[in-house]
Amino acid sequence: MQYQQFSESEQQQSTLNLGLFYLFYNSGSGSVKANQFCVLDCADITLIVDGKEVQISFFSIQNVASRNQGYNKLKDDLSSNNKQIPIVIAGGDGSMMWVIEQMIQQKIDINQIVIIPLPCGTGNDFSNALGWDTDIPGNMLENDYRILKQFIRFWQKGHQCFFDIWDITIQTQQDGYFQEIKKNEKGYTKQSVKDLDGMNTNILEKKMSNYFSIGVDARIGYGFDKNRTTNRHLNKICYCLQGIQKMFLKNPRLNQVVEFVEHFNHKEQKTLFKTVNCQDKNALTVPGNPATLVCLNINSYAAGITDIWKNGKTPPEFLQRNKLYSEKTSFSDGLLEFISFDSIAGIGSERVLAGNATRLAQTNGPLLIKFQESNNNNIVNSYIQIDGQYFSIFNPLSVEIQPCRQLPQGKIRILMKD
């Protein structure tokens, strides 16, 4: 894994305060291990680690009063502190972007904080990509905070680097809409995504840190959302069962849903690849009839599968046209990798028998994914996911992907495990 390290001048300007940590936790994340921090909500504790005092402040991101207290306290500390402050986020992949988006809304200087993931979700690919693994051991607070102190030592030895964040804008046709799985008093149910006026929305805007996909993997995740549990291992079993079930259903294929993917800017438009139904004769055609199209920002997918791009196969015509393909991937190079999988079995077996993905493009943004248009007799229905958040989409129109406009150079600062 290659990543963009700080220059010497940036290192001098980015001194990290290793004696002060904020820990924002999501007690409802996949493994619910973050629930252990509820006893310290809105509290500050001081620990002695290797002879030095370390202060940690705990706040719940699910509790409005708690998280707002945390954000206000963080603003005060940033204004009176010349050093950057490390922010530990205990939760899943979705919790990471949730906190970052809230901090942007709160006008917290993102350039003055450094994100550290503490994996308490189901997939935890963000944490895995940074070397922090996909799970945490036991109770971190027992035995005089023994495990928490060990993690503090790891955090103090970690090194900073940049991490790309992307804006995703998904639009449907005028009669289209989105559905997602939400929990209510009746359990998990399908709900249409609404705008501020309570109407079905035609536009969905999200930020992406890990990956975006269209196809059967998102359909599996959508079904999984209906059956989530509070046990990480049971969740993985549930996900596998959903995959087996979907193997026997008729799933929308890429050729039925997507028309083309193009790179665009103010100077030019370039079609990177297309499906068989696109009329552009000069564009590269995706081979076969893939079940899933995946756009990767990190080297970890589907709860810990790594090196998918490196191990993937490249069609000869794609290799000839795209001579700048590199097997190296990075979460800080401003590039995204597009791959496809032909089947559910190919995705599932990638963990033990690598090489099932087809490499399609390695490119920067902005990007446009154009869906096939529906007509009166043909409703286009597909499934999408953004960092493990799943949606069913009806009569989709397009997806735009570009570097996050609300962040300096579209990047955040993160801490990698040494």
From TrEMBL:
EC number(s): the record gives: 2.7.1.107
The UniProt entry, under InterPro entries, shows: ATP-NAD_kinase_N (IPR017438), DGK (IPR037607), Diacylglycerol_kin_accessory (IPR000756), Diacylglycerol_kinase_cat_dom (IPR001206), NAD/diacylglycerol_kinase_sf (IPR016064)
Transferase as a keyword of this entry, yes or no, is yes
Q: Where is the DAGKc domain?
A: 87-161
Enzyme class, UniProt record, top EC level? transferase
A single GO BP term for this record reads: phospholipase C-activating G protein-coupled receptor signaling pathway
Q: Which domain of life is it from?
A: Eukaryota
Report any Pfam family annotated for this entry: DAGK_cat
Reaction(s) catalysed by this chain's protein: a 1,2-diacyl-sn-glycerol + ATP = a 1,2-diacyl-sn-glycero-3-phosphate + ADP + H(+)
Q: Which GO terms describe its molecular function?
A: ATP binding; ATP-dependent diacylglycerol kinase activity
Q: Which UniProt keywords apply?
A: ATP-binding, Kinase, Nucleotide-binding, Transferase
Q: Which GO terms describe its cellular component?
A: membrane
Q: Which PROSITE patterns match?
A: DAGK (PS50146)
Listed SUPFAM superfamilies? NAD kinase/diacylglycerol kinase-like
The record's similarity note reads:
Belongs to the eukaryotic diacylglycerol kinase family.
Q: Which PANTHER family match?
A: DIACYLGLYCEROL KINASE, DIACYLGLYCEROL KINASE (ATP)
Descriptive protein name = Diacylglycerol kinase
Task: Please tell me the species this chain comes from.
Answer: Paramecium tetraurelia
